[in-house]
Sequence to fold (87 residues):
Amino acid sequence: MAVEKVEKPAEHFEKPKDVVKDQDLTPREKVDALDTWEQDARQLLTASNEGMPGAEEGLELKDDNRLDEVVKTKQKIGETPNPKPAH
Fold:
């Protein structure tokens, strides 16, 4: 179960800060889950900015981009955000 939470955090947690509260994840797994969420959010944002939103994107109120929340949560636990590399 922990592997799924790390690989697909948006499917298991309502908000990034909920990852940090999860008692079943180790500190490393929490960082990895937030890294995954950050990468997914950056990819979604890039695709949307390039006019390629996902088929289901934006259909749910909670579907807003969570990149800002992920970055703030990572900073609160002492982790550095992983900026998208330049092309």
Q: What stands out?
A: The longest helix spans residues 27-49. The two ends are 35 Å apart (CA to CA).
